[in-house]
Specification:
The protein is built from 3 helices and 2 strands, in the order H-H-H-E-E. Helix 1 (about 10-20) packs antiparallel against helix 2 (about 25-45) and helix 1 runs parallel beside helix 3. About 45% of the residues lie in helices and about 5% in strands. Strands 1-2 form a two-stranded antiparallel sheet.
């Protein structure tokens, strides 16, 4: 059996780091995401035919959390307050023009609000 390109431990670490970045100020959601990751890794502790696919799935989830998930927050007790997006440096930013370049990796250097 060929060894997967990323070990399960490495994928687990990537997933934990991604949850820390994505859910930075939301302890309840951070804890739930980490518990879910731990549960899924514990359920699939034994090496099987689809182990490589499961490891790749964990890495893809980590990439999704790191690059595509933005959290919104507002003041605790103020229901009429505006929502603020917590956008960090690793969030993928783009516009409809990036669709035209196809599979090329494009880095956009402008703010989302412009």
């Amino acid at each position: 059996m060929a060894a997967p390109s990323v070990s399960a431990l490495s994928a687990y670490r990537q997933l934990l780091r991604a949850t820390r970045l994505a859910f930075r100020d939301d302890f309840r959601v951070l804890l739930a995401a980490r518990q879910e990751a731990r549960k899924n890794f514990d359920e699939n502790r034994r090496v099987g035919v689809d182990t490589g696919m499961k490891i790749n799935h964990a890495v893809e989830v980590a990439n999704l959390l790191r690059h595509n998930l933005v959290q919104g927050a507002r003041e605790q007790d103020n229901e009429s307050a505006k929502w603020e997006l917590r956008i960090h440096d690793e969030i993928e930013r783009g516009d409809n023009d990036t669709i035209k370049v196809g599979d090329k990796n494009v880095k956009i250097h402008k703010a989302c609000s412009s």
